[in-house]
Amino acid sequence: MNLSFFDQFASPCLLGIPLILLSMLFPYLLISPQDNRWLSNRLSTLQLWFINLITKQLMLPLNKNGHKWALILTSLMTFLLLTNLLGLLPYTFTPTTQLSMNMALALPLWLATLLTGLRNQPSISLGHLLPEGTPTPLIPALILIETTSLLIRPLALGVRLTANLTAGHLLIQLIATATSVLLPILPSVSILTALILLLLTILEVAVAMIQAYVFVLLLSLYLQENI
Amino acid sequence: VLHSTRPLHTSQQCSAPVPPLPEKGGEVRHGLIPEEFFQFLYPKTGVTGPYMLGTGLLLYLLSKEIYVVNHETVASACILAVIIYGVKKFGPDVAAFADKLNEEKVASALAVKNEAIKDLETAIEQEKKEQWRVEGRSYLFDAKRNNVAMLLETNYRERLMTVYSEVKKRLDYQLAMQNLKRQKEQDHMIQWVEKSVIQSITPQQQKESVAKCILDLKALSRSAQAAA
């Protein structure tokens, strides 16, 4: 079938039944269910070690109250990592390329951190709006700037993830198109483009992992400020 | 959760005891297709059967354009190349790491067990030593008893010695007193006798005795001169 460049971002639908939920649950096929064993097989051991590593790293800078967020942050990290990596396979729909989904993840979580901060320690939370050591005439302007930066955080979180993944996927598609079109015409240039595509693929793998990590890291940072 | 080592529908599922994990994973050829598939086709089509099936299927999909070659094909070739390279290069290391994690778990538990065994063995040694010590208890008590008896004996003898010396001191005192008295009486008597004798010497007698002494001395000197 002839694909346009944006067909990969269309929410999957089969005979009018939306399959988006199924595509969001796909990554969990890769995670082995909890086994009541002391020594499990290699895959389970590695996954358990990895989840322990993520949780420890995320929970290090947080105080005891922040440890309530361990489950949601670790599961968010696992979900984003697996979804992004799975999306690099051909003909695979990546849910995180949809702005709606990323905003649905970013906005409630960010708002939760903000409200936690405002409820438990309102003055400290508001105090973060003014960095230390600012000269007095700059204070009103700085308060406005910091408020804007605070309110734009959920938008930044969601759009960052969406834009990175969408741009990466689009670039792969474009360069792949260039390679396949140039193949009968100028094979040597086609080989060069194929090389670029190879490097880009490696970059995309890295970006997939980094973006997931950055999303969760920023959320944990916002949590640190407010809890 | 279905335990993969239990054949399907042969017995009830039960959680305990946990059935053992197989030593190695299932055999796969080319990293994807299980060996059982090749064994399944072997009786009918021999060794090349599955490969013919694969090639035929691929050519059928391509020639009938059921699978269309477009830009996604190129992209999939790239990602597959990356994946296969990654698996081939880092596969054994990751497997070794997973095995190491399990080994460490087992080793720490074994270490606990061995430590406990060692501690108990040391305790047994100590206990045996204490039992041996108990056997020598009678000797210990005898020695102590002798010690005490000797101390008592020494003390008794010291006190006996003290008594003897005290009594001797008292008797010596009495003796010295008597001696002193006798001595004094003697001295006094001698003095009185001398005093009376000296008083009784008249001057006449004195002159006579002095002249006699002079005559005696002359005679003595004469005899001494004669002898020499």
Label the overall shape of chain B: rod-shaped
Order of helices and strands of chain B: EEHHHHH
Helix % of chain B is: over 70%
The global form of chain A is globular
Q: Count of DSSP E strands of chain A? A: 2
**What separation lies between the terminal Cα atoms of chain A?**
52 Å
Evaluate the radius of gyration of chain A. Answer: 22 Å
Strand order of the largest sheet of chain A: 1-2
Subcellular location (chain B): Mitochondrion; Mitochondrion inner membrane
InterPro entries (chain B): ATP_synth_Bsub_B/MI25, ATP_synth_F0_suB
Protein name (chain B): ATP synthase subunit b
Main location (chain B): mitochondrion
Topology record:
The complex is a heterodimer of chains A (227) and B (228).
Chain A: E1 13-14, E2 17-18, H1 20-25, H2 42-59, H3 70-86, H4 99-120, H5 122-127, H6 139-151, H7 153-182, H8 187-226
Antiparallel strand pairs in A: 1-2
Chain B: E1 28-29, E2 33-34, H1 35-45, H2 49-63, H3 71-135, H4 137-200, H5 203-227
Antiparallel strand pairs in B: 1-2
Organism (chain A): Ramphastos sulfuratus
Pfam family, one (chain A): ATP-synt_A
Family (chain A): Belongs to the ATPase A chain family.
